[in-house]
Amino acid sequence: MVRFFLRRLVFALLLLVCTSSAALFLTRLAPGDVTAQLGPNASRSEIESTRARFDLDRSPLSQWILWAGRAVRLDFGDSFLYNRPVAPLVIRAAGNTAVLALAALAIATLVGISFGIVTGSRQGSHTATLVGGASLVGVSLPPLLTSLIFVFFAARTGWLPPGGMSSAGTSDVSWAAWAIDVAWHLPLPSLALAVPIAAIFERLQSQSMSDAVQQPFMVAAIARGVPRRALILRHAWPVSLRPLCAVYGLVIGALLSGSFVVEYVTSWPGVGQLMYSALRARDIYLVAACAAMGACFLAIGTLAGDLLLAAADPRVRDQHA
Amino acid sequence: MRRIGIALLALTAMSALLASWLAPNPPDRRFPDLLYAPPTPIHVFDDHGAAPHAHAWRLVSRIERRFEEDATQRGPLLVLGADAYGRDSFSRLLHGARATLALALSATLAATLFGAIIGGIAGYAGGWADAVLSRVSEFVLVLPAVYVALALRAVMPLVLPAADVFALLLAIFALLGWPIVARGVRAIVASEREREYAIAARAAGASATRVLMRHLVPAAGGYLRTQATLLLPAFILAEATLSYVGLGFPDTTPTWGTMLQEASNVALLGDAPWSLSPAAAIFLVVLGVNLVVQGTGRAPVQLEP
Q: CB atoms < 10 A from the CB of A136, how many?
């Protein structure tokens, strides 16, 4: 188990270094640099000093060496757009993204798995057909579409705020009032992100459940007179969880990709938005830090997926022991 | 179910192919008095009998975007209203299907082709070539596709002519798509190469290329078809996403993504549900693909891109 974690850790570190360095080089080699943000009337000396401040007057390689040298001491450079160190900016945005993604994951898990248990254990019933149809529609509704549709309904009905993470003028209210305000803004983007994932969970759970109820041990349990409720929940469900846990680690990628779109459409101030504005402005250290944060999310997600899989399936545990 | 899916896809393909004939107005024509005009009601009967036509919108208030029907005049038919420049949304939707679908189809072809070749080589050669190719494809697979596409597109010049954008997005999509295909092809080829027919072909003196291309890659044909059907909607969506955030086609080019930018204005969106029509078009294509794939058995679950 320890070796397994060490290998995971090495892979995560490698991913972190590779993605953030690649982001740095890509941004550096892209046409144009951050001095375009100074406007057309910037003086020559101003442009020169800005370039010097961001090491843009050095070669890409020596810039990378300087940046990497500072990064190991946890100094990730400054952002031009926000004129402050990038670390607090990215950590704050990452917190917002994590709230959004975790809320969406919780919704998708609850809805998807409970409906999947119902449809999988009652193949051919009206409920199963109906839910199956609904989740086919859900699978065909990627976050770009769901977020636009939800924003449309929010704008039309006014039941939920159509965008943002908190209302204007709530920065100086009490902590509790702020939390309630954020909770009011959360359902729309998290639902938009959750719909396709919930549909995928439902399909997977339904398939594995209908496989599980056909296993011989189920016949044995029925013969022993186990009531139907316990039959499904205590006997069939744990067995059917394996394919779902295997997908959990992959979902993190879908959540990250989806959260960029949802953040953009609903103006949720997360990593996706930050990375987008940083990329457009060629804000080089901010791009690199956002890429590093994305790699962290991926590493945490795959680790969580592996742990879940190990918890659900003893064979995986033994393999890594 | 499968038939409905095929019908949906055929309908989309036909409307893209026949866009020039089906579109009531040229996609670039601007009606200066019809900015944000709602859809025109279609009237079937006029004084002389049955002749479907639309009455002209008369602009009542430009600032409130209010229009009245002018029964005395015939006007341009706006099935889905007009956009911010007074262009006919329905005609743009039909023409937009061309760019969007052409890009998605060619990207799917390219990704499948590269994936088949690279996966085939990795599976057939084994050894260090297999190890290197597999590690590379694993690395690409683990990254969230949208971010990679975003980063690769954003570091290119932001304003490019439509043809260059097409080529650039094609390259980016193919780069992101091939590992998904290659991984499966590698596994299939690696197991098939030990089968009798492959050994027989080698014993008969067939070259490695011939064994690979004539015998082993065709064995992965079913897998390639499934993967291609799954990549297509992903690429349609990727184009829409990139164009929506302003990193895809220039907005003079009608595509489903550039048209969706209309919907990004929340204040307007509430009053103009028809600006979501490109979203509906994307939904129908994705649904069509899912119906077709599900009709062939269990739906393969694809999470990304």
A: 19
